[in-house]
Amino acid sequence: MPAEGAIEQRGQIISIAAGDHHVLNAENCPGFYYSTSSGTYYESLELTFSEDGFIETGDAIYTSGISYGSTAFFGKKYKVLEDGLLSESMVSYGSRDLQKGNDFDLGNGYKLVLQGINGDYALLEFQKNSVPVTTESVEQGSKFSFKTRIDGTEYVILEGTLDKVLDSKDPVVRLKSVNRYSDTPLKLEVGDEFGKFEVTAITSKEIELKNSVPIRLQLGDYSTILDNLIDFQVADNVYRVCSYNMTEDTIKSYKVRGTSMAVNRSDSSPDSCSWTADSFGMLFYDPEYDLSTENLSLSLDAGSDWIPEGGLVYESLPFNMTYKNPEMGDYGEDWFNEGYSVLGWDGEEYAYLGSDRGIVNILLDEDEKLLYPDEEYDLKEGYTLKVTDLDSDNACLTVSRNNLPVYSSIISPGKSADLGTHTLLYKEKLNGVEVPIFSAYVDSVIEGEELSAVSLKYLLHFSDSPLEMSCGDEVGELTVVEAYPKLRLENKHEVWAGSDINVFEELWIGRFEKTSSGNLYVTFYPYMNKVENVGSILPSTTSVSVPVMSLEEYLIGI
Questions:
Q1: 87: closest CA among 78, 74, 96?
Q2: Strand residues in 151-221 grouped as ranges (E)
Q3: Which superkingdom is the protein from (predicted)?
Q4: CATH number of the domain that 241 lies in?
Q5: Which of 159-173, 207-221, 393-407 has the lowest average pLDDT?
Q6: Cα–Cα distance between 506 and 256 in angstroms, integer?
Q7: CA torsion, points 78, 82, 84, 87, in degrees to nearest 10?
Q8: Would you list the DSSP string of 15-36?
Q9: What's the rounded Cα separation, in Å, for the pair 212 and 57?
Q10: Interval 63-103: pLDDT, tens
Q11: Do 434 and 393 have their domain in common?
């Protein structure tokens, strides 16, 4: 299972039945390096399934192409020093001003210092740990590069262009396309092993790895495919998987991108793009039931970069979920009797309170849990569950909110319970609807000299903070036009599609342009900005290496 606190970047959902063949790359799978300014990517993972969930040895092929001296390996961009010798791109800036006295911090002790200006020339000094490595006089409009010696050979580890020189009281220069590379390169050789994979070829055009052992994926599995890059989670009842990139290191914000889609804006026909959970990993997907509900689409008229009214649409179509706990079928409240209506909103799982009463987040849906005396089980939003007493086959369970008890019940499985003969039930009225805030089936009570515990099943926890959703409400660029029986939001005014679009809250649509054979192609891609303080989100570099590039550059390669 993924590390606690790690951030999931989910990719597309694919079938892994016998005979299926897929190619994952940066356009459809998170983790691989991708430039959102040009659409450039290098890596791909080709998978062939000979049986349901089974890949023969050599049928999983990871390839990274090499173009103009650059490549990517396991999600990071590299400069190719020579065949098999790769220097990681540590800093990448499109444009940056450098003023005398304000050093350009390049990370790992490196910095670029403007020593002075003379006409159209600037004196740049490359330092490490404040000690000069080399100094170079660079003319305006010229490229510059600084080298270091690695294993007896000199290699470029900093390069860029001196775009402008401004000679004034406070001298300043403008730098473009600044790239700093690692001085501890990665050396690859045929036969090197990376988890289940082995390097099988290294040429001037590509690096290839193949699985050296068979890969088998069972229903309900969570399995690492490429170490520290791609994981697969298999649905419980069908051979479909969603790919994940579990990130590491500590930062507070990150960007997760969906599949990019290109349209030809030079022809006379309208263009459209649409994303679901299959193509955008931040939309809600339940692998246990192989279910998703959200859809995001945009439509453009021919010859215009304005999205017309009704051309930007977010829709979530709910489905009815039956309780796993058989005793909850007799709950009694109309909206929660026998089950509840589930839908995704902004990538998370919610349930309807009623036709005009909003939606509530489903915080926990867990099949089983062994709870020990005095153990405090976190139910989210300040709620906890604790066994406060055990006596023979009786268990006293206490639900607390912000460390204050809100409900306690003594359950004797098969004899007495809040519902049926086994179910603990804490309920609360929200917007006029009696909601089963927390329920759990007490399967058995274990009391002994060495082990005491309560065996719980079918734990289900709803938020007690409804999200109001009514027709006419405005959310970002969209307006709620239907709140029940499905959720639908549309733009009620024209939206400019010539730059990134903030659809609502954390959901955006980005874009970049390319011209090919006289035609203008525009690529759109959805992404979510997240801000969160967790213990694991970015791919680690080394114990002493701190990435200096922006977060977007690091995650998706701007």
A1: 78
A2: 153-166, 172-181, 186-187, 193-194, 197-202, 206-211, 215-216
A3: Archaea
A4: 2.60.40.4190
A5: 159-173
A6: 10
A7: -30
A8: E-STT-EEEEETTTSTTS---T
A9: 6
A10: 999 999 999 999 899 999 999 999 999 988 888 899 988 89
A11: yes
Beta-carbon count within 10 A of 494 CB: 13
d(CA 141, CA 215): 53
3-state secondary structure of 392: coil
Return the number of other C-beta atoms located less than 10 Å from residue 414's C-beta: 12
Dist. CA 526–CA 118, nearest whole Å:
47
- Classified as helix, coil or strand, 329 is helix
Q: Is 348 exposed, middle or buried (0-12, 13-18, 19+ CB in 10 A)?
A: middle
CB-CB contact of 489 with 503 (8 Å): no
Contact 330, 279 (CB under 8 A): no
Q: Which residue has the higher pLDDT, 37 or 459?
A: 459
Place of tokens 């990435």: 547
User: Which backbone phi and psi does 236 adopt, to 5 degrees?
Assistant: -75, -30
State both tokens at 496. Answer: 């400019």
Residue 151: CB partners within 8 Å, gap ≥ 6? none
Give the strands of the sheet with 8-15, arranged side by side: 8-15, 240-246, 230-234, 222-226
Q: Which of 2-6, 30-34, 81-85 has the lowest mean pLDDT?
A: 2-6
Backbone φ and ψ for 504, nearest 5 degrees, come out as -165, 150
Residue 167, token pair as written in the block = 């000679």
Residues in the chain: 558
- Nearest-angstrom CA–CA distance, 186 and 155: 13
Closest listed residue to residue 49, CA positions, set 234, 276, 202: 234
Residue 476 belongs to a domain = no
Q: Domain total for the chain?
A: 4
Instruction: Write out the two tokens for 284.
Output: 């809600």
Please check whether residue 542 lies inside any domain of the structure. no
At 321, is the secondary structure helix, strand, or coil? strand
Are both 313 and 182 inside the same structural domain? no
Residue pointed to by tokens 């890596």: 43
Q: How far is CA 480 from CA 178, 381, 505, in A?
A: 45, 27, 14
pTM of the full structure: 0.75
Ramachandran angles phi, psi of 330, nearest 5°: -100, 25
**Tokens 């709140």 correspond to what residue?**
483
Residues in contact with 511: Cβ distance below 8 Å, sequence separation at least 6, in sequence order: 497, 498, 499, 500, 522, 523, 524, 525
Find out whether 106 and 548 touch, Cβ atoms under 8 Å. Answer: yes
Q: Both 331 and 447 in a single domain? A: yes
- 215's CB contacts (< 8 A; 6+ apart) are 54, 55, 60, 196, 223, 225
Q: Over the chain, what is the mean pLDDT?
A: 87
The H or E element that residue 556 is part of is: helix 551-556
Give the C-alpha separation, 30 to 451, whole Å: 43
Residue type (1 letter), 223: S
